[in-house]
Amino acid sequence: MQAPDTPSAARAAEINLERHDWVLDEAEALLGRPFNDLLFLAQTTHRSYFDPNRIQLSTLLSIKTGGCPEDCGYCSQSARHESRLARERLLPLDEVLEAARAARDAGATRFCMGAAWRNPTDKNLDTVLAMVAGVKALGLETCVTLGMLTADQARRLAGAGLDFYNHNLDTSPEFYGRVISTRTYRDRLETLEHVRAAGLKTCSGGILGMGEGRRDRASMLCQLANLPAHPESVPINLLVQVEGTPLFGIDALDPLELARTIAAARVMMPGSHVRLSAGRDDMSDELQALCFLAGANSVFYGERLLTTPNAGAERDLVLFARLGLAFETAELPGREAPGACHHHRDQAAGNAAAAGN
Ligand code: SAM
Ligand code: DTB
Ligand code: SF4
What we know:
By secondary structure, the chain is an alpha/beta fold. The chain has 13 helices and ten strands. Helix content is about 40%, strand content about 15%. Helix 3 (about 35-50) crosses helix 10 (about 255-270) and helix 9 (about 215-225) runs parallel beside helix 10. The longest helix is centred in the middle third of the chain and has 16 residues, at about 120-135. Mean pLDDT is about 90; it is low at about 1-5 and about 335-355. The structure holds S-adenosylmethionine, 6-(5-methyl-2-OXO-imidazolidin-4-yl)-hexanoic acid and iron/sulfur cluster. S-adenosylmethionine binds near residues 75, 147, 170, 237 and 278. 6-(5-methyl-2-OXO-imidazolidin-4-yl)-hexanoic acid binds near residues 277, 278, 305 and 308.
């Protein structure tokens, strides 16, 4: 019989736990473990919760671009920065549904609609509710990110059949004031409370590479993991540097810190989908592979994020085929499983063959 204090028993005790009592020193120590130990723990944890060779694909659409009154230092859409994108109107329903259909046909299972608002007005929300219903009817999971929500707005979104609400904590409470001044960390936590209370699934994560330190990354993960329920979806974005924003030109993050943060997110929120989110366009295939090994099991899939380019479906299908990664399917009635769709399988196989595999 194995003594309870052997390394393997200790390791077994480290995984399979969904905890909500992380303390900052502990999370920072996790992030700072020897790289191989951290990745092994993350991959072992990942395997006890998920099929390690399957990822979830979400496609983004900006339904209302630019002219945002908030001052988020990373964002191209703030009216307060020199980057100032042209302010556009809320897209018409038919354009949104056309984009959703294309995303579904390309293999995505979730369609995420983002609006450059501090918060939606009730009139705008009516329009979004129609979009949610229309996108759902196409057999896609739905996610929206519209800024701060009242409890009543969250309930109305749930009533329309919305699956996920995305609202990121973005960074640690300690670093937050260096990035955003127009809304508080508490405001963000309150919106997440409303989302949970309405019975919506939560999508919440943050951005790395904004000049924060490892302790900030650990602190952000503690905030997420210590929520009353782990967010079902945890997007980890790498800052996309946009000219004219205050964070443009900041030193790039060591890519291994991204892999470490993904691994720690996997260990701390073992049952959540961890999404390797913005920034993939500038990542090597090898760095992405390392992040999948660290436990990332979701990506934004498609040609664009909200206002900047994404890695693109063609490149992704080759990469997924090279890694033997299959797509997750949405458990929604009336939709064909993308992994089972001949078009994608053949396309991925053809692309991989062209890539010499
Ligand atoms: N306006 C709403 C809000 O901020 O609550 C929703 C849309 S906003 C663009 C959604 C999230 O995208 C932000 O919270 C941030 O985490 C992420 N994001 C925005 N610009 C980014 C950038 N340049 N690089 C990485 N992530 C970014
Ligand atoms: C999230 O965490 N990342 C997405 C989504 N949620 C809304 C947004 C990424 C935006 C990247 C910069 C841009 O395209 O404007
Ligand atoms: Fe506005 Fe959202 Fe951009 Fe902040 S992140 S400036 S709230 S669009």
